[in-house]
Amino acid sequence: MIHVDPRERNFIIGTTILLLIFGTAVLVSSFAFGFQVPAPVERLDPKLVATPGQSPWGDPVEERVRELAPNKYEVYILAQAWNFQPREIRVPVGSTVTFMVTSKDVQHGFRLDGTNVNMMVLPGEVAKLTATFDEAGTYNFVCHEYCGVGHHTMYGQLIVEP
Ligand code: CUA
After folding, report:
1. Which atom of ligand 1 is nearest to the CA of 121?
2. How many domains are there within the chain?
3. Domain range for residue 65?
4. Using H for helix, E for strand and C for coil, what is the string for the chain?
5. Which ligand 1 atom sits nearest the alpha carbon of residue 79?
């Protein structure tokens, strides 16, 4: 039997307990609360992203909310200093919406209240997350990465209609 100093042993026990607590927290948040990690799904050229014909973010803003199937939508949101396009999105209640967000200039954020949608938006990358809306109402989204003097004016709304 190796001799372990009691203080060292307590330290080992304490850190093991902490690791178990943190590990449990990660597992509970991923399975019980639907924790999602946004991964960059696609790379593109931020200089061309808003050019018509070059990408879905170059399409007219009213065509960026696409109905793929009944109650299944895809929204292409372009972040730029200092707004989101589209700024107002309307879907019927019960919809599943996939948010495809990219930036044409600097780093922005996209956080949608009342959901697990929370992503960093980087120029040249597409951030993608999906949420389902079973309750009608207005869900606000904001930019939560400081992006300059107009940062606080960067927001919009998703309106889930009954
Ligand atoms: Cu965009 Cu802060």
Report:
1. 1
2. 2
3. 40-161
4. CCCCCHHHHHHHHHHHHHHHHHHHHHHHHHHCCCCCCCCEEEECCCCCCCCCCCCHHHCCHHHCEEEEECCEEEEEEEEECCEEECCEEEEECCEEEEEEEEECCCCEEEEECCCCCEEEECECEEEEEEEEECCCEEEEEECCCCCCCCHHHCEEEEEEEC
5. 1
